[in-house]
Amino acid sequence: MGTKFNNLVESSVPNEVLKCIQIGLLCVQSDPADRPTMSTVVAMLGSDTITVPLPAKSAFYVGRFIAESILNIYAIRVKLK
Length: 81
Description:
GO terms for molecular function: ATP binding; protein serine/threonine kinase activity. This protein is mainly α and 81 residues long. It is built from four helices and no strands.
């Protein structure tokens, strides 16, 4: 998985990657009423002017260390370029 993730991240603009992650987190909210509709997701993905709301507490939690490690590795690679 590491190589596929690295290829995805290296070929993307950092803000686009973060936007996709943020939208993904909105889609897995524990309360379905808090999740965006598919048309809203498509609009958020296709627009640079729509402000993507911050997700509430995620329904799933992998672990802080793993998420921070991935973001730190990505930040280091962006700085080196």
